[in-house]
Amino acid sequence: MASTSDIKNGFTFRHSNDIYTVVEFQHVKPGKGAAFVRTKIKSLSTGKVLSETFPSGHKVDEVRVERHKMQFLYKDDMGYHFMNAESYEQAAIGEAFIDNPGMLREGDTVEVLYNTADNTPLTIDLPQYVEMEITYTEPGVKGDTATNTLKPATVETGAEVRVPLFINIGDRIKIDTRTNTYVERAKN
């Protein structure tokens, strides 16, 4: 058991029959009354972010986790197959554990968060930015670049991203995997 004094960003614990990780926290000592900890916690099963307040000294059930670098190999009817970069062990992980599977290419390295008690995967963290090639988009019309208008474009994995009008087929772009949005043209 851990207490609220152990809470920090990335701390993983069991709460309300689910496993949560701390996204943001703040220890508050008001002038009058007892101290407390205000947190934003993310459910590792649903991805929902909640605001929760715990009284100072409150006991929480800590979940011990390990992070493993794994390489994405392929996808089939059993799920997404990954290989541990150190031990070369392979694991099939369901799509529900991946926040944005459309941004995952074969050979990409991801970070998998495992619960050490039963060695089950909790989440898969993709790199924050990935570079992908545009495989299809409508051509931009000359003179339409003065506004911040976006158009749909398909990238090499088949995912759709909204891009500015000046982006064409064959261009490489940088994409934010958390929001699935265009960031910039990739530097060569």
TrEMBL record:
Give its localization.
Answer: Cytoplasm
Locate the Translation elongation factor P/YeiP central domain: which residues? 67-122
Q: What coarse category fits the chief subcellular location reported for this protein?
A: cytoplasm
Q: Which GO terms are recorded in the biological process aspect for this UniProt protein?
A: peptide biosynthetic process
Associated pathway = Protein biosynthesis; polypeptide chain elongation
Q: Which UniProt keywords apply?
A: Cytoplasm, Elongation factor, Protein biosynthesis
* Molecular function GO labels: translation elongation factor activity
What SMART domains does the annotation carry? EFP, Elong-fact-P_C
Q: Which InterPro entries does the annotation name?
A: Elong-fact-P_C (IPR015365), NA-bd_OB-fold (IPR012340), Rib_uL2_dom2 (IPR014722), Transl_elong_fac_P/YeiP (IPR020599), Transl_elong_KOW-like (IPR013185), Transl_elong_P/YeiP_cen (IPR001059), Transl_elong_P/YeiP_CS (IPR013852), Transl_elongation_fac_P (IPR011768)
Pfam families attached here?
A: EFP, EFP_N, Elong-fact-P_C
Span-the-membrane segments of this chain are none
The superkingdom of the source organism is Bacteria
Residues covered by the Elongation factor P C-terminal domain? 130-185
Q: Which CDD domains match?
A: S1_EF-P_repeat_1, S1_EF-P_repeat_2
Q: Which Gene Ontology CC terms are recorded?
A: cytosol
Task of the protein = Involved in peptide bond synthesis. Stimulates efficient translation and peptide-bond synthesis on native or reconstituted 70S ribosomes in vitro. Probably functions indirectly by altering the affinity of the ribosome for aminoacyl-tRNA, thus increasing their reactivity as acceptors for peptidyl transferase.
Q: Which family does it belong to?
A: Belongs to the elongation factor P family.
Q: What is this protein called?
A: Elongation factor P
